[in-house]
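Feature request, filed as a ticket because there's no other form

It would be nice if the structure record came with a short human-readable summary line next to the tokens. Right now we just get the raw output. Example of a typical job, pasted below so the devs can see what we mean:
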Amino acid sequence: MSPPPPNRQLLSVNVAQARHVTIDGRQILTAIDKHPVSSPADPRRIKVGPLGLEGDEQADPTVHGGQAKAVYAYPHEHYAFWQTVRAQAGKAGWDDTANPGLLGENLTITGLLESDAYIGDVLRFPDCSLAVSEPRHPCFKFEAKLFRQASKMMVQSSFCGFYLAVRQEGTIAAGEQFELVPGPREVSIRDLFRDQMSRKKNI
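Raw output as currently delivered:
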């Protein structure tokens, strides 16, 4: 018997406005503190435009945002890992439950990991379509939000999530299922991320 198909679902839609925070004594503009605006309990429809979600901002368009990186999706399956390492780092309690948006993602999803998300694949929701474009790279803002060494943990695990370009504008709401429409299936997010991180290490 073939295995059952994965439950590909949108658990939460998360946005944030850019604001100044102090990191290592410096004032830094960031929008990494995403918060849910659509959840299964309150499935508000959120507009999806060519540059991302209504109500969302990116602080540094050189590394986040733009048409190729309009939306950032993250698999909820990795949350248990991050809860464990955050507790080990003393940044969370062992029994804490992380809120969606923990990794700074716009879409908290299930059923699609980096190993099976390929450049050019399309996530088809009922009223919009989003194309897998590239992996997310960790940065100092990510470490400031989670804990020191979080970037290293992301590199070692390849639990990076992926950016999405807006193929078809529309609306989106938590609780929706999505269909994965395969693209060329030549390069996976996990393989590309590992290659990019390896190249950075060797520079």
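Something like this underneath would help us a lot:
The chain has four helices and 13 strands.
Helices lie at 79-88, 140-145, 150-157, 189-202.
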